[in-house]
Amino acid sequence: MTLLPDLSELAARARADLRMGLPVAISFAGQAALVAAAETLDDTRLSALRALGPVMLAITPRRADTLKARAYSDHVARVRVPGDAGVEWIHNVADPAGDLAMPMKGPLTTERGGDEGIARAGVMLAKAAHLLPAAVLVAVDDAGAVAAENRLTWLSLDKLDDLVPTGPLDEVVAARVPLAVSEAGRVHVFRPRDGGEEHYAVEIGKPERSKPVLARLHSACFTGDLMGSLKCDCGPQLRAALAAMGEAGAGVLLYLNQEGRGIGLANKMRAYSLQDQGFDTVEANHRLGFEDDERDFRIGSQILSALGFSSVRLMTNNPAKVAMMQANGIEVVERVPLKAGHSTHNAAYLATKAKKSGHLL
Where in the sequence is the active site (predicted)? Predict the structure, then answer.
């Protein structure tokens, strides 16, 4: 028996540290560095990092492309931080909020060649922490020793995939919840073992496990689901899906905590601000440094399997959800279109989803 945390637990601790502005120590492929999230870094800790050596800023190729900087990689761009640059410079490179007001941020000098593993790890951790995907790094000789001296979290990685929070899910509890669409409602709460956010399954009626269940994978949308935002169609889709299940007498709605297509609410609001500047939803994500869609739909297949379902009639307009279900052992016998919430406020948003993200609207 051991009380020592395993790697997934250390990664969860590291994500929390980055959100608080603490650096973490990372060792990978013979290299070692201290890594801090660009978004939460302050002047005091930047000075402490500089005392250890030259500082580098890791950003995604998407963000580098916006800044007209060469990534020299499909995974990460490593930007040299000038010796006289403070956290304001770092924040301006990482955050596109001021891009139009201050378009000239360079020229930025980026590294070519050499090992990029820890730079990739830093960006991956920042993403997983729902921060801007940018990390500040300083190389050290012995990450373990530096971590021990400064009481920092230390991750010794064999592979970068260990940082991706996709661990097994455990059902914590289930309870009857009468709903407006059906008094026979039941909510299941699933918790990832890797410290990630909980996800929920709303079961309507008593769907037979031996037959394809009417199902919906719905990603959490605070603004649409709760506030009635007109910028998206999420809220109307959520209510339409539940209503359809209530009318059918049975169904399962998976409510996945993957806000903003997996980038978190704060970054989603950043994307909204960029949309107000004239960028569409995909362009806004790219300027922030994210891909079009950062969600992991494998979570949905895990929950369905845990509930005993092997086939679904999937309510979606997104072919990617169908493909992901099929690839992870859940048979999709039918795609059920779900069209709701179209308005003048979200017409451009929906057109972009259809044109750039392949949604069938």
Answer: 293 (proton acceptor), 295 (nucleophile)
